[in-house]
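Hi L.,

You mentioned the student needs an example of a multi-chain input paired with its predicted structure. This one should do, with 835 residues in total across all chains.
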Amino acid sequence: MGLFILRRVGIMLLTALCLTFLVFFLTNLYPNLEKLAKTQGNFRMSDEQVESYLSKNGYLQSTPIKYGEWLGVLPSYRYTNEDGTVQGRCILPGKTAEESPNFCGILQGYWGYSTVFKEEVSTVVGNRLALTGRLMLWVMLLMVPSALILGVLAGMKEGSATDRTLSTFAITTTATPEYVSGVIFIAIFTSSAVGLKWFKGTATQAMENPTFENFFLPVLTIALYGMGYIARMTRASMTEVMTAQYIRTARLKGVSFPNIVMKHALRNALIAPFTVIMLQFPWLLNGVVIVETLFNYKGFGWALVQAAGNNDIQLLLAISVVSVFVVLVTQLISDIGYVYLNPRIRIS
Amino acid sequence: MEPLTWTGSIAFLNPLFALGLALMVLSIAVWMLASIVLPEDQMTVNPDGTLSSSSGLRTLIQLALRYSFLASVGIALAYIVLGVLMGTSAGIIGAMSQQFLPVWVSLIILYAMSIAFKRKLGLYGKLFDSPIGMIGFGLVMFWVFTGVFGAMDLIVTHDPLSQVSGMKNKVPGTPLSNLEDGQYAWYLLGGDNLARDVFSRMVKGAWIVVQIAPLATMFAFMVGITLGLPAGYYGGRLDTLLSFLANLILAFPVILLFYLLVTPEIVATGVPNYMAAVLFVFPIIFLGVLLNSRYYTRPNFRTPLLIGVLGVAGWFYLSLISTGGYIINTDAYRIWGLPTYLDLFDIPGGILVVFVSVVFVNSPTVFRIVRGLALDIKTRDYVAAAQTRGEGPWYIMLWEILPNARGPLIVDFCLRIGYTTILLGTLGFFGLGLPPESPDWGSTINEGRKLLSIYLHPALPPALALLTLVLGLNLLADGLREESLKD
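Structure written out for the whole complex:
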């Protein structure tokens, strides 16, 4: 087990390195740098001005060197201005060149400076992640229990009325992407044209003061799309368990149906959904970006859109590190959890 | 001109339809409750050999459900038939069903032919045994026909890009204020915030999806199959490497990837062209290996066949990746491609990058599915038999393993087209790739959502269109899965 986790962590690190290098490469292509220079300076910069801005900030070195600087394995670039002051990535405002360290990358715990938010990347990502974390928590609290209940109810008796109706419902929710269901919910529940006005169409206020009124719709929108998939997986696993030999034995023994479902079937049926739920996290991340844009909730996904739209290299890298980390950790947890939950694998 | 109401002179159907729907919902609820509460029907065998069922209550509820469902469908059909006959005097619904007339005709012909010959049509014919599959297929074909006829300017009422003065944000059924000759007199589903016709834009948007989604999915399948089969069959280092690469792409959040790939800046660097050049090679490799592995024992037949097929495929490939005589055309450097007089078609940079990134995102998943199937199937006896016969590895992969993996692959193909449609919508929703005035559903939803609290009509039609198409594909996949599991 220890070796297994160690190997997985090694692969994780390698994947994260490859992916961040890819992001680094794409964001450091010259047209993107030009865009960055123009959004930082002004849009009427001439080609020479762009060039001088980029060379001043060290953007014109070769990509591997810049990547090394970002990682913190190479000393970072410094530029001496005409008046003798030295500027560079490591030299924060208010510090001199002598006080600042030579190496400043993520290995030293420095994530860089966001050009969009004019803040350190670590604080931006921290704040935004806290907001998104709250959203995700409620999504999980809504999505997981309802999906499991749906799936178990549908899978209890394959082909029954409940199964057909709930399966149709599950298919419909998986066929409704967030930007469709979100728009429909906003249209029905918040617009003055329909006149129900039960909820608020934006979740901006929910960042400070989440209430049922302003926070439920975004949560529901994300939860609904993921729910159908988990419910269908739960149903499949439940129907498989319900046809197993030991369930038949229990029925022949005269155990009542609720008892069979609750005591005999459920435990084994919930192993597969556990992995599925864990692997849903990366998909939820997509939903988060869409819903945060749609409901104007300024969390992690919203920051991603801002960073990508303005080619904020440091912030984009931090965001991709975080999201890759989420994806790989959930994969690891799902693997370990699967082994732990399934005694047949655990013992052998 | 009078503004149109929703149902016009066939408004007498509305209470009937509402009643039918209410009854159907009620009977579904009762049906579900009954299936939990009521005891199961006891079948008893009588001495004379007949069967009798004890409780008729379940049958009764099922009958109620069936009839209320049929009644609702019947009234819905009546709306359409009356609409086709009466046109605009049957309100907006009538006018729309009249516009969709070519679609109805094609659907009826398709269904009549398919049901008549369903026993001779293999898996496709079996689809017509499952109600779910039939509904799904109907929804999908509705949008396919809408897309095709819309592209031929049959269904649309106005130009999807032209603006008509005075029609900004007007509600559905508003008549045009100063009508010119040959112009359709109403905006059936209203105008958007740039005074364009929502109905025509929705119809034109179907064509974009119908063009890109199946083709992109097919390319993703070619890439996934060409790489997944050897990974599963050979295993070892190759498998480790390819799986690592696939997981690498899968670990990327899709939206971040889109934001990095689908921007005008990236198009300017030529990266999508390189990706296109690599990704579009796979279908050629696939075709070449497929035919070669089958016919290499008959060189006299194989050589001309391969030259012909690969020649045509190569020509398509070169026309696909070269635009205006260049494969890559950036400010810094150029790479020569097919000269313009041999170039069959040009793909605009925006569409190409959308296409490439959708293929790129989908192929790792297909790779994993194919690899898993190949791992499973390669242990079967018929593979061992082929190996004993001395068949080459590619023959076994493409002519033994692949045909036996077709069931799950066809089902996944349908689901994946739906997923690709959702991805295209996502791209449009974030305003990536396609030009902002393009009528595709994602962009239209994105534009409509800004005024959603006041005007619903610009955003809802494309949203519902996307929903029904993807739902249709999901139901179709479900029906196919059910039918392919039967034998």
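You could point out the following to them. Chain B touches chain A through 53 residues (CB under 8 Å). Residues 198-234 of chain B form the longest helix (37 residues).

Best wishes,
N.
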